[in-house]
Amino acid sequence: MLDKVLRFFITLFLAIAGGALFHLLAPVLTAFLSTEVLKADLGIFKLTVASSLCLLLGAILGGVIGFLASPYLIRLLKRFSLWVEQQLNKMPIHDVIAGAVGLSLGLIIANLLGYSFAKIPVVGDYIPVIFSIVLGYLGIHITIKKRQELAGLFDFFPKLLKELAKNREAKQASAKTAVESEVQAGKGYKLLDTSVIIDGRIADICETGFIEGTLLIPVFVLEELQHIADSADQLKRVRGRRGLDILAKIRGESKKLKVEVTNVDYDDIAEVDSKLVRLGQEVGGKIITNDFNLNKVAQLRGVEVLNINELSNAVKPVVIPGEDMKVSIVKAGKEQGQGVAYLDDGTMIVVENGQRYMGETIDVEVTSALQTAAGRMIFAKPKN
Q1: 341 and 267 in a common domain
Q2: How many structural domains are present in the chain?
Q3: Of 241, 246, 247, whose CA–CA distance to 229 is shortest?
Q4: Fewest C-beta in 10 Å: which of 217, 355, 361, 365?
Q5: Per-residue exposure over 280-290, b if at least 16 CB sit within 10 Å of its own CB, e if not
Q6: Which of these, 205, 378, 380, lies nearest to 307 by C-alpha position?
C-alpha cells in the first residue's frame, strides 16, 4: 500500500515538474511557429494555445517518466531511510534530541541572517541556502558536543523548584514544632464539661494555679447549661444557674489562667459528651470532668482526662488503721447497728455499733479505709 502511495506522488510530482518545464519552452515554440492559432489566448490563467499544449505535453511526458522510474526511486528512498535509521540507532537518544534542537536553532538563525542578505543582486537568492546548510550543521555539531553543559543549564529550573519545595516543607515543620513546643510549654487546651462546671470546685482549683494552659469552654456546653437553667424542674434550674455563675466567676476572677469560648459545634453529633471528645481530639486538649462514663469513653478514644474526683481523693488526708478520730454520728447505716458520720471534706465514716450513739460526738478507732473512683469510705469502731 505504501509503495502505491509513493508511486502516485512521484508520478504526480514529475508530471507537474514536466509541465512547468515545458511551459518555459512555449515562447520558443511560438517563435519557430508564429501562427495566430498558437498565440491565441484561452482566457484561463492567461494561457495561450502554445503554453497549454506545452503544459499538457510536459505533464504527460513527466508522468510517464515518473511512473516508469518510481520503482527505482522508491528503492533509493527506502535505502536512504534505512541508512538514516541505522545512523540514528547508533546515536544515544540525548544526542538525537540535542541534534534536533541544534538544527532548529541553526535554521532559525540562518533564516534571520539570510533575510538581511536576500536583497543582494545575483547571489542574494543563494545566500540563505548557504546559511541554512552551514548554520544547521554547526547547530547540530555544537549542541551534541555541549549537551552535558546545556543539560545542566536546563536542570537549573527543576533544582530551583526542589529548593523552594524544601524551604516550604522546612517552614511547615518549624511551624508544627512551634505549636508542639507551645503545647509542651503549658499552652495546651483544657476543656470543661457540664458536670464539672456545675460541681463548682473547678473555680477554686483554677485559682490555686495547678492547672496551666488555656481553659476552653465549648459553645455547646454553654447551651446545655442554659437549657438546664431554663428547666421547669427547680433542682435542675438551680444547678444550671450555679454552673453559669461558676463560669462567670472563672472568667472574671481567674488571673492565672486564660479562658476562651469556642463556637465550634458538630451538627452531626447529638450528645454533648461525644462533641466534647471530638473537640478534644481536634485541638489536642485534655478534658476536665467528674463524669465517670465520660472519663472512660475519652480514654478509649485517646483523649486525656483530668478527673476532679480523682484529684479530690488524692489530696484527702490519709488515714491509717488504728488511728483515733473524733466524729459525730448523724444517721444509721445500712447494716444493723451501724452509725454514719462525715468528715469536713464529706468523707463518709461507717462506725460499727455506732447507731446507739446517734446525735453524739464520740472517739472512734479506724479499722480500714476503702478507696474508689467515687470517693473514700472509712470504717471505724467506737474507742470505748
Answers
A1: no
A2: 3
A3: 241
A4: 361
A5: beebebbbbbb
A6: 205
Distance from C-alpha of 203 to C-alpha of 248, rounded to nearest angstrom: 10
Three cell numbers written together for 269 = 453529633
pLDDT confidence bin for 186, thresholds 50/70/90: very low
Q: Which of 42, 10, 9 is nearest to 26 (CA)?
A: 42
The SS3 of residue 82 is helix
Crossing angle of helices 234-253 and 219-229, in 10° steps, is 140
> What's the predicted TM-score (pTM) here?
0.42
CATH number of the domain enclosing 287: 3.40.50.1010
| Amino acid identity at 65 | I
Q: Is 352 helix (H, G, I), strand (E, B) or coil?
A: coil
Does 309 lie in the same domain as 230? yes
Q: Residue 197 sits in which domain range? A: 188-313
Q: Is residue 161 part of a domain?
A: no
Q: Mean pLDDT across the chain, nearest whole number?
A: 78
- Same domain for 9 and 143, yes or no, is yes
Q: Are residues 46 and 139 in the same domain?
A: yes
